[in-house]
Amino acid sequence: MTREIRSWLTDMDGVLVHEGTALPGAADFVRALRDAGRPFLVLTNNSIFTPRDLHARLASSGLDVPEDAIWTSALATAQFLDDQVPGGSAYTIGEAGLTTALWEVGYTLTDTDPDYVVLGETRTYSFEAITKAIRLIKGGARFIATNPDVTGPSAEGDLPATGAVAAMITAATGRKPYFVGKPNPMMFRSALNRIDAHSETTAMVGDRMDTDIVAGIEAGLQTFLVLTGSTRAADIERFPFRPSHVVDSIADLVSCV
To answer: Is the pTM of this model over 0.90?
Structure first.
């Protein structure tokens, strides 16, 4: 039975856009949400970019998504750390999306006795920075990572991402990180708090069973799997859980707003 939907969470890559191009129906879906005044957030595990950056990137593809309607794993990580140790310190491996989010919650970025080592995504992982992180973790810093994705897309093919580098640091330190981003339902709960929404009346739209859908289920949301991204219809049976609904694309959900 379909529950009433008053607010929406949606993944970005594979749902709204693919390699910088808006997917069919995406602009109509975003427009319908805004016209109806529905609270919504676009969620992404990508911690490289700030919401301002992503707003500009989405706008270039024809999607008018406000900055405050974008929720990244970097923002969720900063909020988590602010809740855990307000005004703390961190040594970060990442780019502007992560460092800006931490700075905005009042964190000090330092490589001297930090409370946390925070690993995010970057296109320029350096051996020196990873070595520093390993030594700080061995020295007592707690290990946090923005998301567990082991690869990220590029025009030339997959790139190593946060999860892969985290595994290397874990092998060297014996310490596993706490991953804040999807599929951790904490990212969804922080998103719900941001838009003052309730899980009973919120839907999650995603293209991945192993991140978007499972996290949505664990957070108590109604879930929609779109088949325009990573998961194919034939893949669904491999998982021990199922989405609430399966649709071809975001275009099929415009009328549900």
So the answer is: yes
When the candidates are 1.10.10.10, 3.40.30.10, 2.60.40.10, 3.40.50.1000, the CATH number that belongs to 7-45+182-256 is 3.40.50.1000
Say yes or no: do domains 7-45+182-256 and 74-179 share a fold. Answer: yes
pLDDT single digits (tens) 87-118? 999 999 999 999 999 999 999 999 999 999 99
- Just give the CATH number of 74-179: 3.40.50.1000
Is residue 13 part of the annotated active site? The answer reads yes
Catalytic residue among 11, 149, 207, 212: 11
111 is an active site residue: no
Predicted pLDDT at 230 = 87
DSSP track, 135-189 = HHHHTT-EEEES---SEE--TTS-EE-HHHHHHHHHHHHS-PPEE-STT-HHHHH
Which residue of the set 13, 53, 115, 149 is catalytic?
13
